[in-house]
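User: Show me a protein chain along with its predicted structure.
Assistant: Here is one chain, sequence first, then structure tokens.
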Amino acid sequence: MMWVRIDNRLVHGQIIETWLPYTHAKNIIVANDAVAGDNLQQQIMSLAIPQSVNCSFCAVDSLNDSIMTIANGNASSIILFSSCADVRRALDSGFRFNIVNIGNIHYGPGKKQISPSVALSSDDESCLHYFKGQGIELDFRCVPNDPVQVRFS
């Protein structure tokens, strides 16, 4: 099983305390170009992850190769992205998934708040419409026990 999540915070308490137990993931893969090239950020994020869980960092465009190497193609994994645009880049590079969890996208100028934890720019909205057009289900939840917060049309 692969759990794909958009969360601009990447690795943090909700991932460790709720999503790891929910998904039974053995791997966390952070697909983020900046973090992939920053050993200090990688070390800081890795501190929070239980030793029984493998954590890897890769550039967005190399995600497919990383999944095959890291997860051996079959171990359960949480794939973390910081933005809709990065998920779209991965999709356009051949990464396939059926559902994307939109957990946290910070508010900023020009963004519309659609839930307590998600604010979308027009580019984000276009990206999510693109996912829906590809048959990808959108799951707006911070944590697994939350009801789906938004019905995106």
